[in-house]
């Protein structure tokens, strides 16, 4: 908040007036209390004036020292502010360059942009939310899955799509490390193509994969707590040992998925369109509710 010029001027005037008052009246008071009233009364006018001037000289020297320290402090503060401004400018330049790299036609450049984004999130915490949103958007753009895709699309998937491209895999890894994921926020990855993706042991809790295709994805030992898979394709996905506590599986297709040793399966959210879950899941859910 900017201070009023009138208030600043008034403050300066008050400080100067107080200082001048101290120079005029404080020396006499100090001399009298230093030597005692009787001794002070016995001093000649010249001796008393000399003593008061000595006190004034000492006060001025002390003030000079304080002003010097104040000047040093102000200079240091100005320097720190300049360093902060310069550093912030560098972060803005790096952030802008990383965004440009993510938009490159070359995979290696995009991969480098992902790495740069993660480094920015580690060194500049106030950029973390922006980095997370940008990387999520990057995955959606680079690996889209159209909702209207043919049901037989998996069968004709090109061979080079068997694994995620390096840039998308790097972005998924960065998001899973959660350096830039702010507490209480989710990562929106709706309608993405992550078929066959190697995501084992990733922390994807709270992520949203609504209407995404994760057929044959490796999700073993993943933390999928509160993760949304509504309408997602999880055919043949490896979910062995994953934590699915309160995961939203409404409309999800888990046909052929490996659900062995899954934790929290009794707590998942399902509906009539959910397919591929164990036949006894309803009994297990009722048993869990009765506990």
Automatic annotation (TrEMBL):
<keyword id="KW-0472">Membrane</keyword>
<dbReference type="InterPro" id="IPR001646">
    <property type="entry name" value="5peptide_repeat"/>
</dbReference>
<feature type="transmembrane region" description="Helical">
    <location>
        <begin position="7"/>
        <end position="30"/>
    </location>
</feature>
<feature type="transmembrane region" description="Helical">
    <location>
        <begin position="59"/>
        <end position="78"/>
    </location>
</feature>
<dbReference type="Pfam" id="PF00805">
    <property type="entry name" value="Pentapeptide"/>
</dbReference>
<protein>
    <recommendedName>
        <fullName>Pentapeptide repeat-containing protein</fullName>
    </recommendedName>
</protein>
<keyword id="KW-0812">Transmembrane</keyword>
<dbReference type="InterPro" id="IPR051082">
    <property type="entry name" value="Pentapeptide-BTB/POZ_domain"/>
</dbReference>
<keyword id="KW-1133">Transmembrane helix</keyword>
């Amino acid at each position: 908040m900017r201070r009023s010029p009138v208030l600043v001027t008034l403050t300066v005037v008050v400080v100067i007036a107080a200082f001048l008052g101290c120079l005029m009246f404080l020396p006499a008071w100090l001399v009298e209390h230093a030597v005692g009233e009787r001794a002070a009364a016995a001093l000649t006018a010249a001796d008393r004036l000399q003593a008061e001037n000595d006190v004034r000289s000492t006060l001025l020297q002390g003030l000079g020292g304080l002003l010097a320290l104040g000047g040093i402090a102000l200079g240091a503060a100005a320097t720190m502010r300049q360093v902060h401004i310069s550093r912030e400018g560098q972060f803005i330049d790096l952030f802008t360059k990383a965004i440009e790299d993510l938009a490159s036609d070359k995979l290696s450049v995009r991969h480098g942009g992902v790495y740069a984004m993660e480094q920015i999130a580690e060194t500049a915490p106030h950029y973390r939310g922006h980095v997370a949103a940008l990387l999520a958007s990057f995955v959606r753009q680079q690996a889209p899955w159209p909702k209207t895709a043919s049901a037989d699309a998996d069968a004709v998937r090109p061979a080079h799509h068997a694994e995620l491209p390096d840039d998308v895999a790097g972005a998924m890894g960065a998001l899973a490390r959660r350096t830039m994921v702010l507490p209480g926020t989710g990562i929106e990855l709706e309608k993405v193509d992550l078929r066959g993706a190697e995501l084992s042991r990733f922390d994807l809790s709270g992520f949203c994969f609504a209407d995404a295709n994760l057929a044959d994805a490796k999700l073993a030992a993943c933390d999928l707590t509160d993760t949304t898979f509504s309408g997602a394709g999880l055919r043949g996905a490896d979910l062995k040992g994953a934590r699915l506590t309160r995961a939203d599986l409404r409309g999800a297709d888990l046909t052929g998925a490996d659900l062995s040793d899954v934790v929290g399966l009794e707590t998942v959210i399902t509906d009539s369109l959910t397919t591929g879950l164990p036949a006894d899941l309803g009994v297990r859910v009722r048993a869990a509710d009765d506990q």
